[in-house]
Amino acid sequence: MRIYLSVDMEGITGLVDRDDVQPDGRDYERGRSMMAQDVNAAVRGALAAGATDVLVNDAHGPMRNLLPESLHPAARLVRGKPKQMGMLEGLTASHDAMICVGYHSRAGALGVLSHSFMGHEIEDIWLDGSPVGEIGLAQATAAALGVPVAVLTGDDVACAEATSWDDRIAAVPVKYAHDRFAAELRPEAEARQAIEDTVAAALTPLPLRPAAIADDVTLTVRWQSSSVAATLPGIPGVTATDSRTVQASGQLPYLYRQFGIWMRVATSMTNQPPYC
């Protein structure tokens, strides 16, 4: 059994503020330790279910948050950037299931540290006309490969977003949002036991594989900066629908990879702090 973990940081147990999740934050070192503990709980659950191969992708910010020595010894780690597939680097059709650890809700939601990929620079994303964030885009890309998302951990808002996108996902709330930078925290031991138990149960038996999606989909992104939207149509296949919105159609996961190029262009043109 081959299991893939994509690990973000905003939805990790106990973390509520940019100082918890950004390398210059005063509580970042504690945050990365908390991140490793949530990941290791998920790895233990996967191993209990019979996983023989566990690949972990550090998917947050600089993508060098997880220290290799802090990771469960049975797991392999994809670390650093750039990565052609970003938050989904290393995911292939050979994986039996994907687990999303520490995910957060999309831009505009009143969830802990909510945003979509680039803080305030990305205002909205739609996939075939449906509002989507990192959760939905990850699930759709995995589905296109025929890989089910078995479990997602994060705050209650992220969990609700995940199950509304795919009600087969087993969601584990590790905190309950009071606002964008405030939450009621689930006790650490309880949260991690819930992660471990839910992963083990969700993989026993393995969830059914979704039918691989071969049809074209349309990805639409509304940017804060009109300059970004004016530049991106220089990429073949990208068109502008108004002064701040662009879209492109194609098959996933190719379109997910192209979206990563859009973000690299936007990063080169802007300097937006993630959580201002």
TrEMBL record:
This is Peptidase M55. It comes from the Bacteria. The lineage of its organism: Bacteria, Bacillati, Actinomycetota, Actinomycetes, Kitasatosporales. Zn(2+) 2 binds at residues 8, 60, 104, 134. Zn(2+) 1 binds at residues 8, 10. InterPro entries: DppA_N, Peptidase_M55, Peptidase_M55_sf. The active site is at residue 115. GO terms for molecular function: metal ion binding. Keywords: Metal-binding, Zinc.
